[in-house]
Specification:
168 residues; PH-domain like; 3-stranded antiparallel sheet; 6 helices
């Protein structure tokens, strides 16, 4: 009776069922692609003014505070998200899922161009951070990083089957 039952079973079903149970879901591994900090050159104007007014003592504290703010700011780009960690006395970490990035731009002010720095600005569909930027990073690295972000965004959207739709 077993051999008769085996013949009655459609041939295509058994292998498909076996394939479904042995098939593993895609791994959700997240790899760090880039980490960095802004340059202290961003504080140059504040440092100069504080140096000129150092006899007042308060500007020294202002300069120290601005140094610590930039020193504790950290950017991290992974294969799935962009993370910003900041804070001197307390810490805050903001995550942005890369598939939410709508547009990227690389800009350089005159001051940044003099020192070979730039800023990557991202427009996102994230409600908590609709605009996010990576400030005062080396220009050559910034241009490459912007392209990496763009490619990661497209790959994630394809993998997750997500499309951005704007309603006017």
């Amino acid at each position: 009776m077993n051999s008769h039952t085996a013949l009655a079973t459609p041939v295509g079903r058994e292998p498909a069922r076996a394939a479904r149970t042995t098939e593993q879901p895609p791994a959700r591994t997240e790899t760090t692609i880039w980490t960095g900090r802004p340059s202290q050159i961003a504080n140059l104007g504040v440092f100069v003014w504080c140096g000129l007014l150092c006899w007042l003592v308060v500007p020294i504290l202002v300069a120290l505070w601005r140094y610590l703010l930039v020193r504790t700011l950290r950017y991290e780009l992974s294969s799935q998200r962009f993370r910003v960690t900041s804070g001197v006395l307390s810490r805050r970490t903001d995550d942005l899922e890369l598939f939410r990035v709508k547009d990227t731009a690389f800009t350089q002010t005159l001051f940044q161009r003099l020192f070979g720095l730039g800023t990557i600005a991202m427009a996102t569909s994230d409600e908590s951070s609709p605009r996010i930027s990576i400030e005062s990073i080396p220009a050559g690295q910034g241009k490459e990083l912007r392209e990496q972000i763009r490619n990661l965004v497209e790959d994630l959207r394809d993998r997750k089957r997500v499309r951005e739709v704007d309603y006017a």
